Design the sequence.
């Protein structure tokens, strides 16, 4: 059993608390199926179309001109998903679509079984927990609110997405520490990506990598690697 000298635990989602398979085989396909209905609704904000058209200017591989028609926006969003782009506007749109799916009961998120007991240990020990993911803050909250284990949002005091900065940029972790009024050295960050661990480490945050089923192999590194949270006492 290992006890970490930390005041706050910062969690990535995909490949860390949630299986990669759930994100890529459930959430992404659900958004792809619902892009057109979303853009066809009169409630779809005009700014979404404007931002997507602007974003298309930076996609040299995408040769079609993007217009504000539901068909054009849908096709471009499907392209962005196929390329696994971490574009903020795409994440926001997906978050809106997933919200409807969760609230209707069509979607229920999968969380690794060792996560809820670990979150409870963190709370009982008087420590803190937060989330940092490339998915929008809204999407993060939905994953933890509508999961098979029940509503886990009670365990997290903050959520951060790429609006604060990219996950492979050390300044992002510095900003998160400042937002939480903590020294970076009092934060432990759980991720499944070496480059994110590098950025966190550069900022003074201690990274721990998760080696979950379905996770991608990482380049050689010297960080601590765990298979799950069962041996972390908090």
Sequence:
């Amino acid at each position: 059993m290992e006890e970490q000298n930390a005041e706050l635990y910062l969690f990535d989602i995909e490949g860390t608390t949630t299986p990669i398979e759930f994100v890529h085989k459930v959430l992404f396909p659900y958004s792809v199926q619902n892009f057109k209905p979303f853009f066809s609704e009169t409630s779809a904000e005009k700014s979404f179309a404007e931002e997507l058209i602007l974003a298309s200017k930076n996609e040299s591989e995408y040769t079609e001109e993007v217009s504000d028609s539901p068909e054009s926006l849908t096709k471009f969003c499907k392209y962005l998903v196929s390329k696994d782009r971490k574009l903020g506007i795409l994440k926001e749109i997906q978050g809106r679509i997933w919200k409807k799916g969760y609230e209707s009961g069509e979607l229920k998120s999968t969380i690794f079984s060792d996560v809820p007991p670990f979150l409870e240990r963190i709370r009982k020990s008087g420590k803190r927990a937060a989330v940092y993911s490339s998915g929008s803050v809204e999407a993060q909250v939905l994953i933890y609110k509508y999961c098979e284990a029940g509503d886990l949002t009670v365990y997290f005091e903050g959520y951060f997405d790429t609006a604060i900065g990219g996950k492979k940029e050390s300044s992002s972790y510095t900003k998160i520490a400042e937002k939480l009024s903590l020294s970076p050295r009092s934060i432990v960050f759980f991720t499944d990506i070496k480059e994110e661990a590098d950025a966190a480490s550069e900022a003074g945050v201690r990274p721990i990598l998760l080696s979950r089923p379905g996770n991608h192999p990482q380049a050689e590194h010297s960080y601590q690697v765990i298979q799950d949270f069962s041996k972390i006492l908090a």
